[in-house]
Amino acid sequence: MKKKLLAAAVVLLAALTMSVIAGCSCSAQSSSSASGSMSASDISGSGSSSSSSGQVEVPNLVSLEVKDAERLLTEAGLEEGDVSEEYSDTVSAGLIISQDPKALTKVDKGSKVAFVVSKGKEAPEQVTVPNLIGMTQTEAEDAISDAGLIAVQDEPVVTPDVQPGLVCQQSIEAGTVVDEGTQIAIATALGSDEVEVPNLVGEPYEGAIDALQNLGLGYDKTTAYSDDFDEGLVMDQSVDFGESVTKGTVITLSVSLGPKPLGPVTVPDVYTYHLEDAKATLEASGFVCRYTGDEDGTVIAMDPEPETELEAGSEVTIQLQSVITAVKVPDIVGKTGDQALRICQDHLLDLIYDSSQGDQPLTGQKPAAGAIVEPESVVTGYFNPVDDDSDDDNS
Hints:
Elements: H1 2-52, E1 55-57, H2 66-75, E2 79-86, E3 96-100, E4 106-108, E5 112-118, E6 126-128, H3 137-146, E7 150-153, E8 157-158, E9 167-170, E10 177-179, E11 183-190, E12 194-196, H4 205-214, E13 218-224, E14 234-237, E15 244-246, E16 250-256, E17 264-266, H5 275-284, E18 288-293, E19 298-303, E20 309-311, E21 315-321, E22 327-328, H6 337-346, E23 350-352, E24 364-366, E25 372-373, E26 378-382
Parallel strand pairs: 2-5, 7-11, 8-11, 13-16, 18-21, 23-26
Antiparallel strand pairs: 1-4, 3-5, 6-10, 9-11, 12-15, 14-16, 17-20, 19-21, 22-25, 24-26
């Protein structure tokens, strides 16, 4: 009986041992399988993360200071590329004008982003003040305009040193170097005694000048075509004969150009003129003047534009405005740089161009002719063809 019990215990112990061994084996296999799955998942996940972080968006650098732009590039994982500088009338010095690549473009990490930094407005060109003493008012104004300066009329001055009617004072001494666009005030000489104005209508212009100078009076001149007066004869005078005026008073003489020529006539430029002067100038060239706007204002638009060829008797419409808030950009293509400068100044605009090529014709301009802009706006003249599709600024 004891032998049978011992044999049963041995069999039971063997069974238990086999069960434990089998359980350990299954646990090891399960652990091994789970470990292998996690490793694959980790590898897959690591590869996906690397792919998604390969490109970044370029930040917007325009209008930022350089230090702020550098910080944004560093944060985006990008590098600073070529940095250049240029003048700008619209972007303050030290701020970024444009960038390459543009903002929001996707690029590889570590890519370089170039940008252009504003140097602010370019310093105005320096010009020399001409000597105006002894000139008539018209001659002085023309000389001032030709020098790129602005003429301002001062009250006449009583002086024995200069012939009445001629310029006796200028606000800035001749030979002084000033910024282009500087105002030069001029004053004409005025006599102290009164004289009677002679009748000069029908007299040759040169003889009329002599008569005025002998009386101590000044003179100025306008011209117009006439079928009634031969070329060179005085048709009208600004002060009627017989009137008493102070010595030094300027008498404007209207001098005949002879009969009006046949065929097309060039429309004169009357921009910035007051109504009376614009009408007189257009009618003197043989045109009928029509106008719209404020009669007390100055010309801000013409239809057709100056330099247009029309038959005598054609209508030219001008638009007048008291306070000039907008002007039309003139067509300066084909004009020399120096001619274009004077045209822009007549239209209350500034012109930027290469003055070293001032005697060469312009081949392009920005803004285009006909654009409406504010007074004192800048027009850029080019001596090479302009690519209208180019866009240097990135906003």
